[in-house]
Write a structure and sequence with these properties.
The complex is a heterodimer of chains A (about 400) and B (about 240).
Chain A: H1 2-14, H2 16-53, E1 58-63, H3 83-92, E2 96-111, E3 114-123, H4 126-130, E4 135-138, H5 143-147, E5 152-155, H6 157-164, E6 173-176, E7 179-187, E8 202-206, H7 207-214, E9 225-230, H8 236-250, E10 261-265, H9 266-309, H10 311-319, H11 324-361, H12 369-396, H13 399-404
Parallel strand pairs in A: 3-8, 5-7
Antiparallel strand pairs in A: 1-9, 1-10, 2-3, 2-6, 2-9, 4-7, 5-8, 6-7
Helix pairs in contact in A: 1-11, 2-9, 2-11, 2-12, 3-8, 9-12, 11-12
Chain B: E1 6-17, E2 20-32, E3 37-41, H1 48-55, E4 63-68, E5 71-72, H2 78-88, E6 89-92, H3 104-114, H4 119-132, H5 148-161, E7 166-170, H6 178-193, E8 197-201, H7 205-208, E9 213-218, E10 221-227, H8 231-239
Classes of the chains: A alpha+beta (about 400), B alpha/beta (about 240).
C-alpha cells in the first residue's frame, strides 16, 4: 500500500505542470464557492446587525386602519391615536417596557442666516433609548423638558452640520417655524437606515412643546405615531396582542369591526430583508457553482487525457505482472491525492479570499461550513471519478491492447 | 528428457474486423525445451507476433491449449495471468517499453513491486540485475539519458530481475544499429548460457543466427522448424 502511495506521489510529481493544472480546476472551483457564499452570508449578517441596531424589540403604532380590507376610514376621520392611549399602554401592558409617542412634522430650521428643512419630532425621553440614539455633545431631553414643555431641542448630526458647520451648537438658539428653541444636545450619527431615510436629519423636541406650539391639529392630544419597546424579542407577539386588545377597548371597537390603528414590528422587516439577502447568497453561490462545474469539467478533461496517454504505461505495468487491481489502486490514489490537495488549497484560498474581501472592500464575510463541505466534496468526487474511470477502463483492456496503444 | 517448458497445441487466434474474420493463427503446435534459444521468424502478418503474445500471456488464444511449465495457462483469468507474467516470464520489447519517469533502477525493480517484494530486497536484486547487464554505474539515470542499447540492457535487466525461467524478446534489436544489435544478442546468448530459455521474434536472418532453433511462420501456420548450432556459441567457442 505504501508502495502504491509512493508510486502515485512520484507520478504526480513527475508531471508537475499537469498535476498543477488539474488541481487548479479544483482550487478555483472550491475557492470561488467558499468566497462567494461567505460574501453573501456576510452581507446578511451585516443586514441583521443593522436591523437589530434599530431595535428588534420595537413595535410601531400608527393611527388609521390597516391597508388590507375593503372600505376604510381615512386617517383623519376620528381614527386617532392619542397620548393618553400610549400612556395607558405604558401603565397597563406588562410586556411593554418603554414608550415613545411621536408628533412629527417637517419644519424650516433657522440659525442666524442659515436655514435647513428637517423633520421635527416631538417625543418623550423613551424615544432615545428605543431608537438607540446617544448624545454626542450636550444632553438628551428628559422628563423635566417634557413636563415644562420647554423650548429645548436636540439636533441630529446632519442638521447640526448643515446649520452650524464646525461650530458647537449646544447653547445656541435656533428657530423652528419661527419659534426659538435652545439646542441642548447633538445626537451621535446613526447613518443611513436600512429603509432609506437619513436618521440623522432630525430635530427632537419635547412632545408637549410640539403639540402646543408646532403642530396644529384638530385635537391637540393626537399623535403621528408611537414606538413601543417590548421587554424582550420573544415577547413581541404577545406584546402586540396586548396593545391591540387595549387599544380596541379604548377606541370602543366592536368585535366584528376593523382596527383603527396599525401595529408593526421589526421582525417583519427583518424577515423580508433576510429573505432578500438569502436570495443574494443563493445567487452568488450558484454563480460560483458554475465555476465549480466548469472546474470539474477541466479536471475531467485533464484526467481523461492523462490517463488515456498513459494507457501504454498501464500496458507495460500489466506486462510485467501488475494485476488490474494494482492499476486501479494506483490511479485512484493519484486522483484522490490531486483532488484532496486541490480541495485543501481551495479551502485555504476561499478563506484567504474571504478575508481579503473583508479587508479591501470593508465587507464582512462569514465562511459557511456547508459551502466548504459541498465544494470540497463535489470537486473530490469529480476528480476521483474522472481519474478513476478511464484507469478502470484501461485496466480491463487486454494487456496487449494497452501495450500497443499509441 | 525433461518435460518441455513451453507446449502449445492447435493454437488458433481469430480477430473480427467488421463482418470478416481474420485468422491470425491457424492451428499451431510446437514445444520448447528448457534452455533452448528459439527464434520465431516470418514475414509480417505471418502470425509470429500473435504467437509471441500468446506465449507471453498478453493475449489469450481463441482455441487450443498452452501449457507453460506444466500448467495450462490458456484458460486462466486476468489476475492469474498477471501472476504468470510476473513470475515465469521476462519481456524485452522492440520499443524498450521502459517507464520514462522512473530511473533505470526503479524500472528494473518494477516487476518486484508487483511480486510484493520489500523495498530493500527490490533494490538489492535490481542492482544485481543491472550489474549483470553492465549498467550498474547508470542506475540513477532516466531512460531518456541512456542510449538505445543501454535502454535495451535496462529492459533485459528488468526481464532478469524476477528470476523468470523464460525471456521473451520481440524484435529486441529492431530499433538498434548493427553494432549495438550484436552486443544485445551477445548478452542474450550469455543469459541463455546461464540456463534461461529465450524465445525471440525477428525478421532479420542475422539476428536469428544467434539462436539454436528457428520456427518459421507463414499465413498463420508453422511451416519450418530447424535446429542448428548458434552463432553466439560458435563465437564464444572460437574465443576460448
Amino acid at each position: 500500500m505504501f508502495e502504491v502511495l509512493r508510486t502515485a506521489v512520484s507520478s504526480l510529481w513527475a508531471n508537475k505542470t499537469r498535476s498543477i493544472l488539474t488541481m487548479l480546476g479544483v482550487v478555483i472551483g472550491v475557492g470561488a464557492v467558499i468566497t462567494m457564499v461567505a460574501v453573501g452570508n456576510g452581507a446578511s449578517r451585516q443586514m441583521e446587525g443593522v436591523i437589530s441596531g434599530m431595535g428588534v424589540n420595537m413595535i410601531m403604532v400608527l393611527p388609521g386602519a390597516p391597508s388590507s380590507g375593503g372600505v376604510r376610514q381615512s386617517a383623519g376621520s376620528g381614527a386617532r391615536l392619542t397620548l393618553s392611549d400610549i400612556r395607558a399602554i405604558e401603565e397597563e401592558c406588562w410586556s411593554i417596557l418603554e414608550i415613545a409617542p411621536q408628533v412629527s412634522t417637517s419644519a424650516q430650521i433657522i440659525f442666524e442666516n442659515r436655514n435647513w428643512q428637517a423633520s421635527v419630532t416631538g417625543t418623550t425621553a423613551g424615544f432615545f433609548s428605543i431608537r438607540e440614539y446617544h448624545a454626542e455633545r450636550g444632553r438628551l431631553l428628559d422628563d423635566i423638558d417634557e413636563r415644562s414643555a420647554a423650548k429645548t431641542a436636540v439636533l441630529g448630526s446632519t442638521v447640526a452640520r448643515e446649520l452650524f458647520g464646525g461650530m458647537d451648537p449646544v447653547g445656541q438658539t435656533i428657530r423652528v417655524s419661527s419659534i426659538p428653541f435652545e439646542v441642548v444636545g447633538v445626537l451621535a450619527s446613526k447613518g443611513q437606515s436600512a429603509m432609506g431615510p437619513d436618521q440623522d436629519d432630525i430635530v427632537v423636541v419635547p412632545i408637549t412643546t410640539a403639540q402646543r406650539r408646532l403642530v396644529r391639529r384638530a385635537f391637540s392630544d393626537s399623535l403621528s405615531s408611537a414606538y413601543l419597546q417590548a421587554r424582550d424579542v420573544s415577547m413581541i407577539q404577545s406584546a402586540m396582542d396586548e396593545v391591540s386588545a387595549l387599544l380596541r377597548q379604548r377606541h370602543r371597537i366592536g368585535p366584528d369591526d376593523e382596527d383603527d390603528f396599525r401595529l408593526g414590528n421589526m421582525t417583519d422587516v427583518i424577515n423580508s430583508l433576510s429573505q432578500s439577502t438569502r436570495i443574494m447568497t443563493l445567487l452568488l453561490g450558484s454563480v460560483a457553482s458554475i465555476s465549480l462545474v466548469v472546474g470539474g469539467i477541466g479536471i475531467m478533461n485533464i484526467m481523461l487525457v492523462s490517463v488515456t496517454e498513459r494507457t501504454r504505461e498501464i500496458g507495460i505495468r500489466m506486462a510485467i505482472g501488475a494485476r488490474a487491481l494494482d492499476i486501479r489502486l494506483q490511479f485512484l490514489l493519484e486522483a484522490m491525492l490531486l483532488s484532496l490537495a486541490g480541495g485543501v488549497i481551495g479551502i485555504m484560498l476561499g478563506y484567504a479570499a474571504s478575508a481579503g474581501v473583508s479587508q479591501v472592500l470593508d465587507w464582512p464575510t462569514s465562511v459557511s461550513g456547508g459551502a466548504v463541505t459541498l465544494a470540497a466534496g463535489f470537486s473530490c468526487f469529480v476528480g476521483v471519478f474522472f481519474g478513476f474511470y478511464p484507469a478502470w477502463k484501461a485496466s480491463t483492456l487486454r494487456p496487449i491492447d494497452a501495450l500497443r496503444f499509441e | 528428457m525433461s518435460e518441455p517448458i513451453i507446449q502449445v497445441k492447435d493454437l488458433v487466434k481469430t480477430y473480427k474486423s467488421g463482418d470478416s474474420e481474420l485468422r491470425a493463427l491457424d492451428g499451431v503446435s510446437f514445444s520448447i525445451d528448457r534452455g533452448e534459444f528459439v527464434a520465431i521468424m516470418g514475414p509480417s502478418g505471418s502470425g509470429k507476433s500473435t504467437t509471441m503474445n500468446m506465449l507471453g500471456c498478453l493475449d489469450t488464444p481463441t482455441e487450443g491449449t498452452y501449457i507453460l511449465d506444466g500448467r495450462d495457462v490458456s484458460k486462466l483469468s486476468g489476475d492469474d495471468l498477471a501472476h504468470v507474467r510476473n513470475a515465469a516470464l521476462g519481456f524485452v520489447f522492440q520499443g524498450f517499453n521502459l517507464l520514462p519517469r522512473l530511473s533505470a533502477l526503479d524500472n528494473v525493480a518494477l516487476p518486484l513491486v508487483y511480486a510484493r517484494a520489500d523495498s530493500g530486497e527490490r533494490a538489492r536484486r535490481a542492482e544485481r540485475a543491472l550489474d549483470r547487464v553492465g549498467l550498474a554505474p547508470r542506475m540513477k539515470h532516466k531512460p531518456n539519458q541512456l542510449s538505445g542499447g543501454q535502454q535495451q540492457r535496462v529492459a533485459i535487466a528488468r526481464a532478469l530481475v524476477g528470476e523468470a525461467p523464460i525471456i521473451l524478446a520481440d524484435e529486441p534489436t529492431g530499433n538498434l544499429d548493427t553494432k549495438t544489435s550484436g552486443e544485445i544478442m551477445e548478452l542474450l546468448t550469455e543469459i541463455n548460457g546461464e540456463g534461461r530459455t529465450i524465445v525471440l521474434v525477428t525478421h532479420e536472418p542475422d539476428i536469428a543466427e544467434y539462436s539454436s532453433r528457428v520456427l518459421r511462420f507463414k499465413d498463420g501456420r508453422l511451416v519450418e522448424d530447424v535446429r542448428r548450432a548458434p552463432k553466439g556459441r560458435r563465437a564464444a567457442c572460437s574465443k576460448s
